[in-house]
Design goal:
Mean pLDDT: 89
Number of domains: 1
Distance between the termini: 81 Å
Order of helices and strands: HHH
Strand content: under 5%
Helix content: over 70%
Shape: rod-shaped
């Protein structure tokens, strides 16, 4: 049986690559039996998704700022 330290290491590796079938099965079994590791795995997934969304938002803002420099908005006419 896998311990929590081994499980968290595999969870981290799983974020970067596909796990071997045996590791995937052992991790699945461990997270079914260990509520703490199951929560940790969900937190890792949440953080990864949040980071990806933040990067996408930052890229959108950067693109909008670049477009505004190339195509500045028209100036308001002077008051009469």
């Amino acid at each position: 049986m896998m311990n929590c330290k081994q499980a968290t290491r595999l969870m981290s590796e799983e974020m970067d690559r596909d796990l071997a079938a045996g590791d995937r099965l052992a991790l699945r079994l461990h997270t079914l039996l260990c509520a703490g590791c199951a929560r940790y795995r969900e937190q890792m997934r949440f953080l990864r998704q949040a980071c990806r969304q933040q990067v996408a938002a930052d890229e959108t803002v950067a693109a909008d700022e670049a477009a505004a420099r190339v195509f500045p908005p028209p100036s308001d006419p002077p008051p009469a």
